[in-house]
Design brief:
The protein is α+β, with helices and mostly antiparallel strands. It contains 15 helices and 22 strands. The chain has an eight-stranded mixed β-sheet with strand order 5-4-8-2-1-11-14-13. A four-stranded antiparallel β-sheet has the order 9-10-15-12, with no helix packed on it.
Length: 591
């Protein structure tokens, strides 16, 4: 009996110690155990596994269990390692798995400044008393500092945004096996952010040996608002971020613009090329039955200031109106001419004649950029376009509205789905921003692509009138700036790849749309005739036009070919000046 007495005493003391430890654990209030395993991947991403055990922590988690992941600027505060403070530090993460007591549990991810917050389990209710064990797995992008000589990882494992104390915490960093251990340097720290809350005497910090070669540190008795952090550096050359790194996490989003591009491509193949231009043969008369504005519509596909100027000139040629230049403006007066001449006018000319003098027998055309002139001039050009489209559109042009409409519809639907399901730092307003960018961008791009460029071309060719285009250019620049600002918000709130996808959808529509336009066989035949007639105007009539129609003189003896010269942009001062009274906003493209 005496021989076994020491053994029994040892067993009794060990049992008492176990009971004491168990009692301490069961009565501890806060986080009893925290372990974070951070695995550095050769592609510069991180895989993180966190294990968190809490006990009797209802007083610290009154609205459910919340974990602030250590990726926000508040957690990555050390400027020596991460640089100066930025509202968006560029770090992104993706949650892979969340479990509670070994079973999957629902969670919510914060947005905006709460982007790094995970609300686990039932939200809004105090955490149940007792013990709970959570496991969180997630990936992290853009957390490494890849330098020319050494690479570095700074990881503030527990995080400072926490009121609960931590009994024991372990941080393990797993580097790629190719990195030699003797070249790795580690700098651990336990304490509050900055110089606040320094490590207490009872807080233990020690390095643990790990058979796998991981860098492991352990600390105990960590106070609230204190954290265990580690800065690890190693020689460069072992980490190789992908060249198109921004697409690594959201590469699947590229399917939307890729499918849209393929849709347009196969539609283009199916449509096939239009009729080829025929040989250029000089013509001495315009195509029979085609008005000057109609000739421009077929040849260029647009209705703009030159179309309106051609209509005014043709009305003057037919003695329906008188045109008088006065101090940079044009005074138009209605003439009671031959009734038969008015009946012979083209439909768009009849409509403009009626609109011009619906209120009084004289009207002044002004290039001023006030709202009244903007609406008035745009109204005239819109009326011309409506009549030309009605009379000539289906006969001479093939525009494939159905294909373009289907592609635009698919663009908005896919963008809406992507925005509605987006995840990131701040998804607030993602749907609105995405839809606004696409709508305004398509409208603005269509104006620039189909009309504004033509207006600048005319101003440069004439050598004057470009000043009048500056307000329109400024307005477009303002919208482009707003679009760029919104794209930056999407890139910061969701991801750069999401913003890129929105831009790609926009550019694909604007780039492919013009390629689907075709002329019908009759349209190409008439286009060849217009080109031959334009050659005649350039070579034979140019001098006469210039002599008769200077910008400063009243066109009393208008040449019958002047309206066509204006419509086809054969250089002559009077038509250019009048056309420039219609600024770039007052243009309608045929598609």
């Amino acid at each position: 009996m005496r021989r076994h007495t020491p053994i029994l005493v040892i067993l009794f003391v060990g049992l008492c110690l176990c009971r004491a430890v168990s009692a301490d654990t069961s009565t501890y209030s806060g986080i009893t155990f925290f372990r974070s395993d951070v695995t550095v991947k050769p592609d510069a991403t991180l895989e993180v596994r966190e294990e968190i055990a809490v006990s009797n922590a209802a007083s610290f988690y009154k609205y459910g269990f919340r974990r602030d992941l250590p990726i926000s600027p508040l957690e990555r505060w050390e400027v020596r390692y991460v640089g100066p403070y930025r509202r968006d530090n560029g770090v992104r993460f993706k949650v892979l798995e969340v479990t509670e007591d070994g079973a999957p549990v629902p969670y919510e991810q914060g947005t905006g400044f709460g982007y790094a917050q995970l609300f686990i389990g039932q939200r809004g209710m105090p955490l149940d008393p007792g013990e709970h064990r959570y496991v969180i797995r997630y990936t992290v992008d853009f957390a490494l500092n890849v330098g020319p000589a050494r690479d570095m990882l700074y990881w503030n494992a527990i995080g400072n945004e926490r009121n609960a104390p931590v009994a024991e915490a372990i941080l393990a960093v797993h580097l790629p096996a190719a990195i030699p251990g003797e070249s790795v340097e580690a700098e651990p720290r336990v304490g509050g952010r900055g110089g606040s809350l320094p490590r207490q005497p009872e807080t233990v910090l020690e390095r643990l040996e790990d058979p796998s070669g991981a860098i492991v540190y352990r600390t105990t008795n960590v106070s609230p608002r204190q954290s265990l952090s580690l800065a690890v550096t190693w020689p460069s050359g072992y980490i190789h971020p992908p060249k198109l790194r921004i697409f690594v996490r959201d590469y699947w989003m590229l399917a939307a613009p890729a499918l849209l591009f393929l849709f347009y491509f196969f539609a283009w193949l199916r449509i096939r090329p239009g009729p080829r231009p025929g040989p250029l043969v000089t013509r001495y008369e315009p195509p029979e039955g085609l008005s000057p504005a109609g000739a421009r519509y077929i040849a260029t596909g647009t209705t703009d200031g030159h179309s309106f100027a051609a209509v005014i000139a043709d009305l003057a040629v037919n003695k329906c109106i008188r045109v008088e230049p006065i101090n940079g403006k044009y005074k138009l007066s209605r003439l009671l001419g031959d009734r038969a001449a008015e009946e012979a006018l083209a439909p768009e000319e009849k409509r403009v004649l009626a609109s011009l003098f619906e209120d009084e027998p004289t009207v002044a055309l002004s290039p001023a950029m006030d709202q009244r002139n903007t609406n008035q001039n745009a109204r005239y050009i819109s009326q011309i376009h409506e009549e030309l489209n009605k009379q000539l559109g289906q006969k001479y042009l093939t525009r494939h509205f159905g294909v373009i409409a289907l592609a635009v519809l698919a663009t908005f639907v896919s963008a809406l789905l992507l925005a509605a399901t987006a995840q990131g730092r701040d998804t607030t307003g993602a749907v609105f921003l995405t839809m606004w960018i696409l709508f305004v961008g398509l409208t603005l791009g269509l104006m620039i692509e189909m009309t504004f460029a033509s207006a600048w071309k005319s101003a440069i060719r004439a050598g004057t009138g470009w000043v009048k285009l500056l307000p329109g250019l400024g307005t477009m620049a303002l919208f482009v700036g707003v679009i760029a600002f919104m794209l930056r918000k999407l890139a910061a709130g969701i991801s750069p790849s999401f913003a890129f996808v929105v831009v790609a959808l926009l550019l694909i529509n604007l780039g492919w749309g013009p390629w689907l336009k075709r002329k019908s066989p009759l349209g190409q035949q008439v286009t060849d005739q217009i080109a031959g007639f334009r050659q005649f105007l350039q070579k034979v009539e140019q001098g006469q036009l210039d002599r008769l129609n200077s910008a400063e003189q009243t066109p009393q003896e208008l040449d019958r070919f002047l309206p066509y010269a204006i419509a086809l942009e054969v250089k002559e001062a009077w038509g250019d000046h009048l056309a420039q009274a219609m600024p770039a906003y007052a243009v309608v493209a045929e598609n």
